[in-house]
Amino acid sequence: MQPVTLRTARLGLSIPTLDDADAITAAAQDPEVPRWTTLPSPYDRSHAEDFVAKAAVWWQEQSELTWGIRVDGSWVGMIGLHRTIAGGSAEIGYWMAAAARGHGYVTEAARAVIDFGFAEPLSLARIEWRAVVGNLASARTARSLGFRYEGLLRQGLSDLRGRHDGWIAGILAADDRTPQPWPMLAD
Ligand SMILES: CC(C)(COP(=O)(O)OP(=O)(O)OC[C@H]1O[C@@H](n2cnc3c(N)ncnc32)[C@H](O)[C@@H]1OP(=O)(O)O)[C@@H](O)C(=O)NCCC(=O)NCCS
């Protein structure tokens, strides 16, 4: 499919481009990014350039739909639907540049991405969220979006650094998105 641009009250979401490579590379230096995502570490500009090129192919294939999250046009984070199967499921993933965290941007961006995923043409039945056990920031984000905690994936996540226990949650197209209790989140 052709890359889709989404807009929210404060954000623009559009395919990452080479113009974003410096900002992506700088943001990926934060140790919290490789700690909780599959991004390589060390991360240099060639990784960002490679990712930008792949993102264009993945949009064409409709396999992974990746958006750069932009404030006033500047790249501040990444969000995507991975392993996308129209009429079936996809997995949401996101990460923000450290300086842009704490403003609710990722939650706002994710609402738009979830609405897009459940609407035509993708018409997803289910969107999944997975995170390495302990990633409370991501868990809070997912819970506030209406994801429901579904369980623990023992050594169920893998990246360049090895295997990890994972949390899994899901949201269905018809779900009420009111936040539900999650066992590892007290409030
Ligand atoms: C996860 C991440 C994208 C959240 O970004 P953010 O800009 O802080 O998110 P928001 O401002 O929209 O806040 C979302 C929720 O996370 C909570 N939160 C943010 N940072 C937190 C932290 N360090 N510990 C616990 N909760 C945190 C907020 O309080 C908010 O919860 P609420 O909705 O219950 O009030 C960001 O921390 C990040 O990029 N982390 C590194 C990469 C990563 O972990 N990606 C996800 C992989 S599964």
Essential attributes:
single chain; 5 helices; 8-stranded mixed β-sheet; globular; binds coenzyme A; 187 residues; Aminopeptidase
Find the structural class using helix and strand composition: alpha+beta
Quick one: CATH superfamily? Gcn5-related N-acetyltransferase (GNAT)
Low-confidence stretches: none
Q: How are the strands ordered across the major sheet? A: 1-2-3-4-5-6-8-7
Question: Helix count, per DSSP?
Answer: 5
CATH topology: Aminopeptidase
- Count of structural domains: 1
Specify the helix fraction band: 25-40%
Radius of gyration, in Å, reads: 16 Å
**Mean of all residue-level pLDDT scores:** 97
Give the strand content.
25-35%
CATH architecture: 3-Layer(aba) Sandwich
| Total beta-strand segments | 8
The distinct ligands, each listed once, are: coenzyme A
Q: Look at the structure and give the CATH class.
A: Alpha Beta
Amino- and carboxy-terminal Cα gap:
40 Å
What is the element string, with H for helices and E for strands?
EEHHHEEEHEHEE
Shape summary: globular
Largest sheet: 8 strands, mixed
What is shown here, in short?
With about 190 residues, this protein is α+β, with helices and mostly antiparallel strands. The protein has helices at about 20-25, 30-35, 45-60, 105-120, 135-145, and strands at about 5, 10-15, 65-70, 75-80, 90-95, 125-130, 150-160, 160-170.
Write the layout of secondary structure elements.
Elements: E1 6-7, E2 12-14, H1 21-27, H2 32-36, H3 45-61, E3 65-71, E4 74-82, E5 89-96, H4 105-118, E6 126-132, H5 136-145, E7 148-159, E8 162-172
Parallel strand pairs: 5-6
Antiparallel strand pairs: 1-2, 2-3, 3-4, 4-5, 6-8, 7-8
Helix pairs in contact: 1-3, 4-5
The chain binds coenzyme A.
Coenzyme A binds at residues 32-33, 36-37, 94-96, 101-107, 131, 135-138, 140-141, 144.
